[in-house]
């Protein structure tokens, strides 16, 4: 999907997880404003705290903004969701979450 389609999803349903995650992630992928990405991804994480990829994307956005201390608990929560079994997937993202977290210490 293109970024415009995700923007329409958010406009139609501001509390929809898929639109918020998709838009935030797409903004990051396209090199857009990390602050805007973080806004959408932060909402996505609140809507579904077990979605591991949302934590990773939000962590990346926060790091891009220089907000390393804010990124740490987000990344830790993503790891915890994946390894605890609360998430329906995302275990494959744990090495990437840990690697990013390690760069912040």
Write the layout of secondary structure elements.
Elements: H1 3-12, H2 17-29, H3 34-47, H4 52-64, H5 68-84, H6 94-103
Helix pairs in contact: 1-2, 2-3, 2-4, 3-4, 4-5, 4-6, 5-6
**Shape category:** globular
* Biggest sheet statistics: none
- Reading the helices and strands in chain order gives HHHHHH
Architecture, CATH level 2? Answer: Alpha Horseshoe
Specify the oligomeric state.
Answer: single chain
Distance between the termini: 35 Å
- The count of helical stretches stands at 6
Unreliable stretches, pLDDT < 50, 5 or more residues? none
The CATH topology assignment is Serine Threonine Protein Phosphatase 5, Tetratricopeptide repeat
CATH superfamily: Tetratricopeptide repeat domain
| Total count of domains | 1
What is the alpha-carbon Rg in Å? 13 Å
Which class of secondary structure composition applies to the elements?
A: mainly alpha
The strand count comes to 0
Beta-strand residue percentage:
under 5%
Q: Under the CATH scheme, which class? A: Mainly Alpha
> Helix coverage percent of residues?
over 70%
């Amino acid at each position: 999907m293109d970024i415009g389609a995700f923007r329409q999803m958010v406009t139609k349903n501001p509390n929809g997880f898929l639109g918020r995650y998709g838009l935030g992630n797409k903004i990051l992928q396209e090199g857009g404003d990390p602050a805007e990405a973080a806004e959408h991804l932060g909402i996505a994480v609140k809507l579904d705290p077990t979605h591991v990829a949302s934590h990773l994307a939000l962590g990346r956005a926060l790091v891009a903004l220089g907000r390393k201390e804010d990124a740490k608990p987000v990344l830790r929560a993503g790891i915890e969701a994946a390894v605890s079994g609360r998430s329906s997937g995302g275990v494959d993202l744990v090495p990437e979450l840990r690697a990013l977290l390690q760069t912040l210490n």
